[in-house]
Amino acid sequence: MKGTVLLKKQLLKMREELLEGMDASIKTARSTPERDVGDFYDDVDIEKDRQMMHMLTEREQAKLKSIDDALEKIEDETYGACEECGEDIGKKRLKVIPFARYCIRCQSELEKRLASNRESAEENLIYKSVSLNDIESSDE
Ligand SMILES: [Zn+2]
Questions:
Q1: What are phi and psi of 44, to 5 degrees?
Q2: Does residue 138 carry a pLDDT above 50?
Q3: Do 11 and 75 share a structural domain?
Q4: Averaged over 88-116, what is the pLDDT?
Q5: How far is the CA of 111 from the centre of ligand 1 (A)?
Q6: Last residue of some domain: 31, 55, 79?
Q7: Which end of the chain is more exposed for a tag (fewer CB within 10 A), N or C?
Q8: DSSP code at position 134
Q9: What is the pLDDT of residues 15-34, one digit of tens each?
Q10: Measured in angstroms, how far is the CA atom of residue 56 from the centroid of ligand 1?
Q11: % of the chain exceeding 90 in pLDDT
């Protein structure tokens, strides 16, 4: 698939940046090998990652998961399709949020649904913070 090398780099960079904030506290953390990793982590220190996974907040973990999933989808060549409706997410949206799971339509539907469902308040927070935060910070 065209352009995936660059895309992977971008995702891995976002991933590293996310984990970077944890650097200080990680030095005292113990190794807990349990994560199954693919072959796309060539550039990162896997052992360090494993430790960091346990230091991240839920929101950070959700974002990290989205990034990991996006990397997997690139491997599977399913990247760019909405998980909800299967339509193309759209280049513009993916440029802003390379790890977007849903097209803009499904995302707003999802947020609406979650917003009206207080049972899912926590999940709502995760989706909202991922989508909003990254429109702000990742478009350089
Ligand atoms: Zn969709």
A1: -115, 155
A2: no
A3: yes
A4: 92
A5: 13
A6: 79
A7: C
A8: H
A9: 999 888 766 455 445 444 44
A10: 29
A11: 42
User: What is the radius of gyration, based on Cα positions, of the chain?
Assistant: 16
Distance 127 CA to ligand 1 centre (A): 15
* Reported confidence tier of residue 51, pLDDT bands at 50, 70, 90: low
Nearest alpha carbon to residue 103 among 81, 124, 128: 81
What range does the domain containing 40 cover? 1-79
Ligand 1 center from residue 1 Cα (angstroms): 21
User: Residue 10 is encoded by which pair of tokens?
Assistant: 């971008």
Question: Are 44 and 87 in a shared domain?
Answer: no
pTM tops 0.85: no
Residue 17, exposed/middle/buried by CB under 10 A (0-12, 13-18, 19+)? exposed
Per-range mean pLDDT, top range of 13-22, 38-47, 104-113, 115-124: 104-113
Phi-psi label, residue 77: left if phi above 0, alpha if psi -120 to 50, beta otherwise: left
